[in-house]
Predict the structure.
Amino acid sequence: MPPISFERVHDRVYRLGVPFEGGGLTNMYLVRGAKTAVIDTAVLGAPTEYLAPALEEIGLGLGQVDYVLNTHGHMDHLGGNSEMKDAGAEIAIHSADAERTRNNRGHVDRSADGLAVLGLMDRLPAREAMLLRLLGREVGCDRELEDGDVVDLGNDLKLTVVHTPGHTPGAVCYYWEAAGILITGDSIQARGSRVGGMPVLEDPSVYPSSLKKAEGVGATTLFMGHAFKGRDGDLGPVATGGTVADVFRESHLTHEAWMKAVSQALSELPNGSGGERAMRAVGLLRESFALNDVDGGYPSSGTTTIPAYLRTAAR
């Protein structure tokens, strides 16, 4: 299990790295103005097991967190929402992902869609069980956010919502302009969060424009949801200086490579199955991206992302 890290990454921001089932690790960010916000809640159990002890180190309790600001609606970023809601926090998420806070079955159905394309429906029972274990109960949200909304925490700390879909329809970044900080969640993926894996994208068609939009705010620091990978290793979870440009560059290049590989696979296999086309695309990039083979013959996150690229390339 990765070590638990709780570090002060800015005078008013703390980062908490929380492990979860399957070797994952999600970074939560505690942001302190006159009011206190937690950016994402990881999986069910994370607030009680990890966040509460971390808060004690700085003299706070779960009940003193005013807001949960979800960057998007995946289980490893909102699974702890119910615990924070029970402790008194208000939940906010972009309107396009709000349904994901109210309906756990939708998480299972989306996973099933990707597995069906690849002919891997035998994997659904295990995937469903994991998702439902880590999601917690549905508590909905108190505020639906839109692009350009401002979350004012007081004491001159204002977070502007930057809608950056692609990872999910409602994925957002939170921009603290005065500090040059962009809290990106999973909106900017580089090569993905696992060594030899790939980005998690539900809609690759809008991802490039979201990358440009996020890059265009001119942030000097990125606080990311995971330690996203570049060609030579980790680019995060905290990126500063020239690494910020590296994150965006790697994200663009990775998307372009997958788009090209999937398009070539479709061209070469006009009558192929989804699985056959997906495997061909993986084969085209296996060596150059040092892809792993952990999910039914696909790289980490491939069963979500490759079907999405197949849909995009076929349009």
In short: The chain has nine helices and 15 strands.
